[in-house]
Amino acid sequence: MKHKVKNFFRFKPKKKRIKTDHQVIASLGIFILFAGIVFAVSYKDLSAPKTEISKPAKNTQSEQVVKKPQVKAKDQKPVPRTDLKVPILMFHHIRDPKPIADKIQHNLSVSPEKFRADLELLKRNGYQAVSIDDLSRIFSGELQIKKPVVLTFDDGYDDNFTQAFPDIVSAGMTGNFYIITGSVGKPAYMTAGQLKAMEKAGMTIGSHTVAHEDLAIISVDRQTKELAESKTFLKNLLGKNIADLCYPSGKYSPLTLTIAKQLGYKTGTTTKFGLAELNSDMLQLPRVRMTEATNLSAILR
């Protein structure tokens, strides 16, 4: 009995040891598996920064390449055109002057044939018709036009639309039309619809006041009204700001210039003979009056 008890106690520790060995092996397996997972995750995390570090380097390089041309463009300052003289041609009616007895109206008229011949002459000599809005940028060198010319038309007569406008478009040119806003839609003058059509086609529309009064002698209030109301009328009609003014019959005073500037006009054309240049006052631009007898070739020379 004692021997059996001894054997029993000897056998029991043996079973316990075997169980412990199994537990150790199982625990070791779990540890190895866990260590493998940790190593795999750690390896992935360690490799990730390499990709993140390389990306900013590439992006920085590409950004520098894009910025370089912009810096160069800013460094290229425009050169003022000190030698440039621009003819601003002044037209009124485009119609046959021969049957017109009134001397003033006769001299305000250029026949359609003469007008087309003058446009052809300008093209042959390499002139490019421009908006008067562009003159300041052309003189400063910001806008590169080798031989600019400005075509202007005073008063807003209906033959400007029926005669001048189609020929200007056919010649691939542009014109500047100064409108007496109080006469829009009246007999012998352009309509609102015609003005819209011309502006849409690339023509520049400017103010010639409301009633074509002598700005040199009327009161400050009336001058302001003439310049302001005509500007507002055209702005509402065309949906754009009006920056160009033509003084009726070329008459104005220093006070007129102050009012025009305060109202936001950028250019003003006169009846003084001459060619515009870099030092010209943009609110007192000279022009060349065009008649049936004007020799444009001589003026261009």
Question: Regarding quaternary structure, how should these chains be classified?
Answer: single chain
- Sheet-strand content, in percent, reads 5-15%
Indicate the structural class: alpha/beta
Give a short account of the largest sheet: 8 strands, parallel
Number of domains: 2
Q: CATH homologous superfamily of the largest domain?
A: Glycoside hydrolase/deacetylase
> Which stretches of 5+ consecutive residues score pLDDT under 50?
1-20, 41-73
The name CATH uses for the topology of the largest domain is TIM Barrel
| CATH domain class of the largest domain | Alpha Beta
User: What gap, in angstroms, lies between the N and C termini?
Assistant: 146 Å
Layout of strands and helices, then pairs:
Blueprint: H1 2-75, E1 85-86, E2 88-91, E3 93-94, H2 103-107, E4 109-110, H3 112-124, E5 128-129, H4 135-140, E6 148-155, H5 159-170, E7 176-179, H6 192-200, E8 204-207, H7 220-238, E9 244-246, H8 254-262, E10 267-273, E11 276-277, E12 285-289, H9 296-300
Parallel strand pairs: 2-6, 2-12, 3-4, 5-6, 6-7, 7-8, 9-10, 10-12
Antiparallel strand pairs: 1-11
Helix pairs in contact: 3-5, 7-8
Explain this structure to me?
The structure is a single chain. The protein has 301 residues and is an alpha/beta fold. The chain has 2 domains: 76 residues; 216 residues, Glycoside hydrolase/deacetylase (TIM Barrel, Alpha-Beta Barrel), CATH 3.20.20.370. The protein is built from 9 helices and 12 strands. Strands 2, 5, 6, 7, 8, 9, 10 and 12 form an 8-stranded parallel beta sheet that branches. Strand 5, helix 4 and strand 6 form a beta-alpha-beta unit. Helix 3 packs parallel to helix 5 and helix 7 packs parallel to helix 8. The longest helix is centred in the N-terminal third of the chain and has 74 residues.
